[in-house]
């Protein structure tokens, strides 16, 4: 196979220039890079040994497939996936995303003087993104500040769909969430004690409520040490759940634990969130309803008076339905070769000419596509030798204090809201500078130095799937230091 036949892609092999490591997740390192073709900065996520564990391969395939469908201004965009040199034996993939400056975890730690306009606009974007994702019947299931990318001009984008699940039936089925390892602090109460439940959009709404509260407080709202402590913190704020709510809890021990808790009154939100406007406090209450049947959907939340002037429903908010056929792989046990083939076909979606050629030939033939991958490997090796590989440090970001105007206009265009009414009197000077040097109070290495199976901030994820067993009451005993009948 001569290179000549594939010259369409060969010209692209020098396209990206890798700059530095900017983030690290359990699945790969994220680098900033320059795209010489489109003349813009991008983020490239390098995922090594994608097929080493089939479950990781499936997760990554699901994530890139979902992101190709979920195109929305509030959801991070995949711009390209580098074509591997050969469909048959590639092991690493390189996913090119639009570049964002930082994530909300960093922003929260660097900004203690955000205004109600910031709060409102940040929550508005998260909910608008969530409404879109839920309209496709996709549940993110792992929303936390680190999974909300941010720019210093206050633009936010939801990322990391690795735990996300699409639903194809109208009837939500009860499923055991065997793979569920999302961060406990943002976990809805219905998941504290039992993972045998339906995939429900309300789980994400709860997480957004926690993220919003963290934005207001500057620290996590419910930093539970274990599931029992998580429920304790939740009930400290919201008071004891109603008996009807407790009755709905499927896990018997979790139910008994809540029934025997001494009666608690809800906390005074004006004392817990003194910095928040009344409107912000009212929205938190609706997002953080203990009972998921009382929780507001993302779509309803956007209609809340808190967003008057910002939000107007538009066709852009609604996603096209996903095709069940595209996600059939999720129902089967796949072998490495099958998942590699599916991954390669997904990558071809970003390389139309190569796709045409690949599909029109006998697929058993091994093609060697010209690729940027080998050149990439050299660039990554050089970076790592220079010490700016995965040890890279990204600073926390300050948000502009008076720079919301540009985004508010953008949101008005998207959502159609009339901003002049809701923001009269505010002085806007346009987006201010990007990452400010004096805001470096949270070295990236601390929050990014985690290996697979752990969550950020050093909080370990223990197996919490066995709460139908004695462990739940054991924790309850440890936590309350008093006797129980278990
Ligand atoms: N498009 C982007 N622009 C800038 N930074 C990014 C981008 N995508 C990811 N990052 C940074 O890299 C980090 C890790 O990315 P991501 O969460 O996608 O990886 P992951 O391996 O799926 O992580 P997790 O361990 O949460 O599953 C993010 O928290 C973020 O700080």
Automatic annotation (TrEMBL):
Gene3D superfamilies attached to this UniProt entry: Phosphorylase Kinase, domain 1, Transferase(Phosphotransferase) domain 1
Residues the record lists as binding ATP: 45
PROSITE patterns linked to this entry: MAPK, PROTEIN_KINASE_ATP, PROTEIN_KINASE_DOM
Keyword vocabulary terms for this entry: ATP-binding, Kinase, Nucleotide-binding, Serine/threonine-protein kinase, Transferase
Domain Protein kinase: 16-307
InterPro entries documented for this protein: Kinase-like_dom_sf, MAP_kinase_CS, MAPK, Prot_kinase_dom, Protein_kinase_ATP_BS
A GO MF term: ATP binding
One Pfam short name: Pkinase
Family in the record: Belongs to the protein kinase superfamily. CMGC Ser/Thr protein kinase family. MAP kinase subfamily.
PANTHER family: MITOGEN-ACTIVATED PROTEIN KINASE
Name of the protein described by the UniProt record: Mitogen-activated protein kinase
């Amino acid at each position: 196979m001569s290179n000549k036949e594939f010259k369409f892609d060969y010209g692209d092999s020098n396209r990206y220039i890798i700059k530095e490591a900017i983030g690290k997740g359990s699945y790969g390192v994220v680098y900033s890079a320059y795209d010489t073709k489109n003349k813009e900065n991008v983020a490239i996520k390098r995922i090594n040994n994608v097929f080493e564990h089939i479950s990781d391969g499936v997760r990554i395939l699901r994530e890139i497939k979902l992101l190709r469908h979920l195109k929305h201004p509030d959801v991070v965009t995949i711009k390209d996936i580098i074509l591997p040199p050969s469909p048959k034996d590639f092991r690493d993939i390189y996913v090119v995303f639009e570049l964002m400056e930082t994530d909300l975890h960093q922003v929260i730690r660097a900004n203690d003087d955000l205004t109600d306009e910031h709060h409102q606009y940040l929550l508005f974007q998260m909910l608008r993104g969530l409404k879109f994702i839920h309209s496709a019947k996709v549940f993110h299931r792992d929303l936390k500040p680190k999974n909300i990318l941010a720019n210093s001009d206050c633009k936010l984008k939801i990322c990391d769909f690795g735990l996300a699940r699409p639903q194809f039936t109208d009837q939500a089925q009860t499923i055991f969430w065997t793979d569920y390892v999302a961060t406990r602090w943002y976990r809805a109460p219905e998941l504290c004690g039992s993972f045998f439940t339906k995939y429900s959009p309300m789980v994400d709404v709860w997480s957004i409520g926690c993220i919003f509260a963290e934005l207001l407080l500057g620290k996590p709202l419910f930093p539970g040490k274990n599931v029992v402590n998580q429920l304790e913190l939740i009930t400290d704020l919201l008071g004891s759940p109603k008996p009807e709510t407790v009755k709905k809890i499927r896990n018997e021990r979790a139910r008994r634990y809540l029934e025997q808790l001494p009666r608690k009154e809800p906390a005074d939100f004006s004392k817990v969130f003194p910095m928040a406007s009344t409107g912000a406090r009212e929205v938190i209450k609706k997002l953080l309803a203990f009972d998921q049947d009382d929780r507001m959907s993302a779509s309803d939340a956007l209609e809340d008076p808190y967003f008057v002037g910002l939000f107007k429903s538009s066709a852009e908010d609604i996603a096209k339905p996903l095709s069940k056929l595209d996600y059939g792989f999720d129902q089967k046990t796949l072998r490495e070769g099958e998942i590699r083939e599916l991954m390669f076909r997904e990558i071809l979606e970003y390389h139309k000419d190569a796709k045409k050629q690949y599909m029109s030939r006998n697929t058993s033939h091994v093609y060697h596509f010209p690729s940027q991958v080998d050149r990439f490997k050299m660039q990554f090796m050089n970076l790592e030798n220079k010490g700016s590989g995965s040890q890279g440090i990204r600073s926390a970001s300050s948000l502009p204090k008076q720079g919301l105007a540009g985004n508010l206009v953008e949101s008005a265009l998207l959502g159609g809201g009339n901003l002049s009414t809701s923001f009269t009197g505010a002085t806007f000077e346009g987006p201010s500078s990007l990452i400010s040097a004096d805001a470096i109070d949270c070295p990236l290495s601390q929050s990014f130095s985690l290996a697979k199976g752990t969550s950020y901030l050093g909080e370990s994820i223990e197996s919490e799937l066995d709460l139908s067993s004695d462990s739940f009451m054991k924790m309850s005993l440890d936590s309350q230091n008093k006797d129980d009948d278990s």
